[in-house]
Design brief:
The protein has 17 helices and eleven strands. The strands form three sheets. Strands 1, 4, 5, 6, 7 and 8 form a six-stranded mixed β-sheet that branches. A three-stranded antiparallel β-sheet has the order 9-10-11, with no helix packed on it.
């Protein structure tokens, strides 16, 4: 953690002293970065990294105040609309010929969106463009024009009066040229706070539940990450070796070098961020829906973000009981702490490097009391430190019963005896469900231009990921609505010959 703390201090110093960092030349940035590294290392104490919160070491935001839990979102919406008549704009709805956009438009409530997105100084008077309309513009871009630049999107699609469908979805006047400038969208995205982004995700989940009615909602979730390569320069401005780690400072201060799975025509290493997403998994259908998406620098191990994602999920009111993740999250000590603090069981693939405990059949997973025991023990449950097993012998079946302890505990590990041991057949099924999550990342990346990231700062990338998150959830609801309509539609009977 020492190298992470040093980089944290360097970035903090550069941001504080040089607020106009992006306007500096590359030569100036390089000189300032090298000087900041020297200054930090001169007065650095090796023990101070132990007292720094994890979210600061990983450059993640802490859980902010002002998050509306899922259980309270319904009351929040009702309070906004209790004294208002449900007026609808039929003239706009008439021009929405696209079934998907028509359905999504019916879901979104502009009064709620304006309330969730309004800054402290917000006043609705004398406004031509409202926050809800800017959000709708972002959602439409993610759904239909993800690869188009903001400038072309506004010029060719939003601000053309003949594009009635676009302007109707954005709730813009159809016969009066009130325009949205591309700089307004960029500013809107940059001004989104972490609390506003999280509230938008909660709002999307609130819309999701009554329409999809997933089996056992939120009991089972999945966590995974995906690389987001930034458009900043791949060559670091300054580098410092600390032990066996390297501290790299790039032109975009928040970005860092990460490693990804080998892909065709792509380098194994990239400079940018990683998208960490928590999804809801339906164990009966295999369907999955994103609940939470967070962006962090790419140089940190995935397991460091699991406690933070669980903390964010708790603040959002997502009552998840079990999480499935890949082997990168298989830290027995950390997962035990997550279970104790948040009540969430983490299920990861069994590590092949962890030895099978003594008196355990490696093939069947049967547990025995000792080397002389011939009767498999039964599972009794888990404690704060491990799994308890008791003797399963019938009375007078085992002659060693009087001198046998008739019980043993196997400590938690990253192998077959994790938070949920492999002796349960449900464990393999839950692990297989995680494979369905790959599709979520493909959808994410193709929306909002995340596959070819043109953005640089971590905050803006987080905002873009949030908007792509919303678009993905809304598109999933629209698809479910379309399929449900086909199932209810009576089939045409064949005509008699």
């Amino acid at each position: 953690m020492q190298a992470k703390d040093i980089k944290r201090l360097v970035i903090k110093q550069l941001k504080a002293k040089f607020p106009g960092w992006r306007r500096l030349t590359k030569k100036e940035k390089k000189a300032l970065a090298e000087q900041a590294l020297i200054e930090v290392m001169t007065d650095y104490n090796k023990e101070q990294a132990e007292h720094v919160p994890l979210h600061e070491l990983t450059n993640m935001p802490d859980v902010p105040p002002g998050i509306i839990p899922l259980q309270e979102m319904g009351k929040y919406i009702d309070n906004l609309n209790c004294n208002l008549l449900p007026f609808t704009n039929q003239s706009h709805h008439r021009y929405l010929k696209d079934p998907e956009l028509r359905f999504i438009d019916s879901l979104l409530d502009d009064r709620v969106l304006n309330s969730l997105l309004a800054p402290p100084s917000y006043t609705p008077s004398m406004r031509d463009i409202f926050p809800a309309q800017l959000l709708r513009a972002e959602l439409l871009k993610a759904l239909r024009y993800g690869e188009m630049s903001y400038r072309k999107y506004c010029q060719l699609m939003v601000n053309q009066l003949e594009n009635k469908t676009v302007r109707a979805f954005l709730h813009l006047p159809l016969h009066k040229k009130i325009c949205i400038h591309h700089s307004q969208l960029s500013q809107f995205r940059s001004d989104l706070t972490i609390a506003q982004m999280l509230n938008l995700m909660v709002y999307a989940t609130h819309l999701l539940l009554p329409r999809l009615k997933p089996s056992y909602p939120f009991l089972l979730g999945g966590v995974d990450s995906s690389d987001l390569a930034s458009s900043c320069g791949p060559v670091p401005l300054a580098t410092l070796t600390v032990g066996d780690k390297k501290v790299r400072i790039y032109s975009e201060l928040d970005a860092d070098c990460g490693k990804r799975r080998k892909k065709r025509n792509k380098s194994e290493y990239f400079v940018g961020y990683r998208l960490h997403t928590l999804v809801m998994l339906d164990p009966q259908t295999g369907h999955h829906y994103p609940l939470l998406s967070m962006v962090a620098p790419a140089n940190h191990h995935d397991k460091l973000f699991l406690p933070q994602l669980v903390a964010f999920a708790g603040a959002m009111g997502l009552s998840i009981q079990a999480l499935t993740a890949d082997a990168a999250y298989g830290d027995a000590q950390q997962n035990r702490r997550i279970k104790q603090e948040h009540g969430v069981t983490v299920i990861t693939p069994a590590s092949q490097q962890v030895k099978t405990p003594a008196q355990v059949d490696p093939e069947r997973g049967q547990v025995f009391c000792d080397d002389y025991c011939e009767i498999p023990m039964r599972y009794l449950g888990s404690t704060g430190t491990g799994h308890e097993f008791g003797c399963d012998a019938s009375p007078h079946e085992c002659f060693r019963a009087p001198g046998c302890p008739q019980g043993r505990e196997i400590p938690f590990d990253s192998g077959r005896f994790g938070q949920m041991p492999d002796i349960f057949p449900e464990v393999d099924r839950i692990r297989r469900l995680r494979k369905h999550m790959e599709r979520s990342y493909n959808l994410f990346k193709h929306r909002a231009g995340l596959e070819r990231l043109r953005l640089k700062s971590q905050h803006v990338v987080q905002a873009a990921a949030t908007l792509a998150h919303l678009a993905t959830v809304l598109a999933a609801m629209a698809a479910h609505h379309r399929l449900a309509g086909k199932e209810k539609r009576p089939k045409q009977l064949p005509l008699a010959a």
